[in-house]
Each structure stands twice: as structure tokens, then as C-alpha cells.
């Protein structure tokens, strides 16, 4: 699919909101709908310039002379490739610091590491374990911190999801005047685990005017705090958020069906039990048909994917936008770095 939304929906109307962003990106729950839209619009604009105007480097080189620390305590494919290539495009230097490269969590506290590392770099992109780790890092860092993943949030992934949805559904609404004209009223169905991806979706999508149907097994409920915030955002945007344990109920009327791994990193010992608990949750054409998803529904998954989560028939079908979604990790991370780490700040 083309990286440019189309002539109508490529009207970037929320750029002004980029001037009011929070210092750190821990969760999109801390951002307004307009700020989220501004980041997604910026990502789309950069993507078009790179892919259709052959712009190999940002003409202003906003990270020239800057070093961005990439602290990854968990392995990664998309996040690492996207972040390093984004920093190169912006003219900066990426310093990858894996769990075996530094003293973090071994001989030095997170607080001390945050203070030391931030004194030598211009921004931190951190992929950690517990939510408390990213918040503590942000608290003691002297430079902006962007959450590359923690056990509660994954903001740059959901920005990529929103860009993908805008690209796909923008083509179906050529008269749309803004990103909200495209996203507004769409129904997202989540069928899977109660994890950081769905928590972050609930933090961002209702406030952007999207309905959500969330389906998790009874043993894996969405935390009450997450539900309360999603409810408040949904009420302000006049949309619905519903919770289910039956996947067929969740996918009814869905425009977008989303799932993720049932066994996240660190849960390998639970795999056998989790596979039993998620029986019947595999996304399939039959599930969408029986549940009466909208006829033009699409499938999304943040990857890596395992066959028990979604059939090959769906994953490799024309309905699947998973590889477009994966590529968009780069463009939304790039837009985030440009907004939070650049020399204009």
C-alpha cells in the first residue's frame, strides 16, 4: 500500500500540538488526542518524503551532534531496527546498550544508571521489564525518555497501529478532512491476552474516537485502573468500550481485529497452561464470519506471530496489514524522536 494517505486525508492539521508534548513518552495515556494525531501525521509526512520523494536524510538533521541511548533489557527486532535507522535519518548517533553491555540491574541501581547515562546523552529510548523501571528512569533522567516497551505500555507500537489504520481506512474515505474523520467511529476488536498492547490501545484509541471490543479469557481480566481511564476517555469522545470473554461477541461489527502473543517474554513457563486457557481464541476467517465482523475487516498483529494466535489463512491474506504495521514502527518512532529529542527543543 502507498505510504501517502491520499490527497484528502494527508492534510496535516494537528502539527501545532507537537509543540505542547510532554517531556517524556511513557504512555499515550499522557497525551491528548490532538498530540497523538500530530505524531501520526508527522510520521506519515516523513514516510512519504522518504519513500516517494527520495529524501534519504532529514534536511535539517535535527539530531546532528546528538547521541541517543537505546537501553534494551529485552531482545527486539522491529524496535531496534526502527530506532537505529530513525536516528541515522535524523543525523544523530545511536548508542545501543543491551543488558550485557552495562551495569544496569547488576552492580548499579536503575536510579544511578539513569543519572549517569543521561548526563552523557541527549535522549533515552528504553525497553524494560516492569512499568516502575521506565517511570523511575524518567524520574531521574536529565534528558527525555521514550518508552520502547514495558509490561504495561507500548506507546510507539500503538502510534504505528494508528498510522496503519489511517492509511488503510483513509483510502476508503477520500473526503475526510482530518485523521479523526477517518478513525472516528471505527470499531477495534481485541481477541487475546490482557497485556501491554491492549492496555496501550485502551489508553489511546477511545480518546481518538474509536469504539473498542475487548475479549480476554476470564482468568486474564483487564486491570480496573485501565478500564476506568478508557471509560472516561470513551465518554468524552462519545464512543463505546465493551469487555467480553466470547470472541464471537467481540468481533461483531469489527472493522479491525487485533491479537498478540499469548505467551510474552518471561512467561515461557506458563505456556502449556496459557494455550489451554486461550483455546478458541485463534483468529480465523470462521471466527470473523460467525461473529459477523464487517465485510471489509482487516487484521493486525504487532509481531512476532505464532500460529496458535492466528491462522495462516488470515495472517497471509489480503486482510492482513501486519507487515505494513511493522514498517510503520520506523515512521512513528522517527516522528517521536524528532519531536522529543531534536535540536529545536
From TrEMBL:
Q: Which organism does this sequence originate in?
A: Coemansia brasiliensis
Q: In which pathway does it act?
A: Amino-acid biosynthesis; L-arginine biosynthesis; L-arginine from L-ornithine and carbamoyl phosphate: step 1/3
Task: Write down what this protein is called.
Answer: ornithine carbamoyltransferase
Give the enzyme class.
transferase
The record's annotation in NCBIfam families points to:
orni_carb_tr, PRK00779.1
Q: Which GO terms describe its cellular component?
A: mitochondrion
Q: Which family does it belong to?
A: Belongs to the aspartate/ornithine carbamoyltransferase superfamily. OTCase family.
Q: Which residues form the Aspartate/ornithine carbamoyltransferase Asp/Orn-binding domain?
A: 185-337
All copies of the Aspartate/ornithine carbamoyltransferase carbamoyl-P binding domain together span: 23-167
Tell me the InterPro entries matching this sequence: Asp/Orn_carbamoyltranf_P-bd (IPR006132), Asp/Orn_carbamoylTrfase (IPR006130), Asp/Orn_carbamoylTrfase_sf (IPR036901), Asp_carbamoyltransf_Asp/Orn-bd (IPR006131), Orn/put_carbamltrans (IPR002292)
Q: Which GO terms describe its biological process?
A: citrulline biosynthetic process; L-arginine biosynthetic process via ornithine
Q: What is its EC number?
A: 2.1.3.3
Per UniProt, the keywords (alphabetical) are: Amino-acid biosynthesis, Arginine biosynthesis, Transferase
- Which Pfam families did the record assign? OTCace, OTCace_N
The GO terms describing molecular function are: amino acid binding; ornithine carbamoyltransferase activity
Amino acid at each position: 500500500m502507498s505510504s501517502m494517505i491520499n490527497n484528502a486525508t494527508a492534510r496535516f492539521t494537528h502539527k501545532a500540538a507537537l509543540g505542547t508534548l510532554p517531556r517524556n513518552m511513557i504512555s499515550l495515556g499522557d497525551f491528548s488526542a490532538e498530540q497523538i494525531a500530530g505524531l501520526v501525521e508527522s510520521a506519515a509526512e516523513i514516510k512519504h518524503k522518504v519513500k516517494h520523494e527520495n529524501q534519504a536524510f532529514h534536511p535539517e538533521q535535527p539530531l546532528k551532534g546528538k547521541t541517543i541511548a537505546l537501553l534494551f533489557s529485552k531482545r527486539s527486532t522491529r524496535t531496534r531496527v526502527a530506532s537505529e535507522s530513525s536516528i541515522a535519518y535524523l543525523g544523530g548517533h545511536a548508542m545501543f546498550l543491551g543488558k550485557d553491555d552495562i551495569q544496569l540491574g547488576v552492580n548499579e541501581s536503575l536510579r544511578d544508571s539513569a543519572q549517569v547515562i543521561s548526563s552523557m546523552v541527549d535522549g533515552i529510548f528504553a525497553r524494560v521489564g516492569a512499568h516502575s523501571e521506565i517511570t523511575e528512569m524518567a524520574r531521574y533522567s536529565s534528558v527525555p525518555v521514550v518508552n520502547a516497551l514495558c509490561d504495561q505500555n507500548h506507546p510507539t507500537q500503538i502510534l504505528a497501529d494508528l498510522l496503519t489504520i489511517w492509511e488503510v481506512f483513509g483510502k476508503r474515505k477520500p473526503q475526510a478532512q482530518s485523521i479523526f474523520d477517518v478513525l472516528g467511529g471505527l470499531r477495534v476488536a481485541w481477541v487475546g491476552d490482557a497485556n501491554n498492547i491492549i492496555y496501550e490501545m485502551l489508553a489511546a484509541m477511545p480518546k481518538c474516537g474509536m469504539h473498542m471490543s475487548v475479549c480476554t479469557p476470564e482468568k486474564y481480566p483487564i486491570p480496573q485502573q485501565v478500564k476506568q481511564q478508557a471509560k472516561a476517555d470513551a465518554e468524552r469522545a462519545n464512543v463505546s468500550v465493551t469487555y467480553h470473554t466470547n470472541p464471537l461477541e467481540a468481533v461483531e461489527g469489527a472493522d479491525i481485529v487485533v491479537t498478540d502473543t499469548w505467551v510474552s517474554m518471561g512467561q515461557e513457563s506458563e505456556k502449556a497452561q496459557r494455550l489451554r486457557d486461550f483455546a478458541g481464541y485463534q483468529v480465523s476467517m470462521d471466527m470473523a464470519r460467525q461473529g459477523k465482523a464487517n465485510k471489509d475487516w482487516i487484521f493486525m498483529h504487532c509481531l512476532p506471530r505464532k500460529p496458535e494466535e492466528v491462522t495462516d489463512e488470515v495472517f497471509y491474506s489480503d486482510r492482513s496489514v501486519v507487515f505494513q504495521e511493522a514498517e510503520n514502527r520506523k515512521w512513528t518512532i522517527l516522528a517521536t524522536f524528532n519531536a522529543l529529542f531534536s535540536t529545536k527543543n
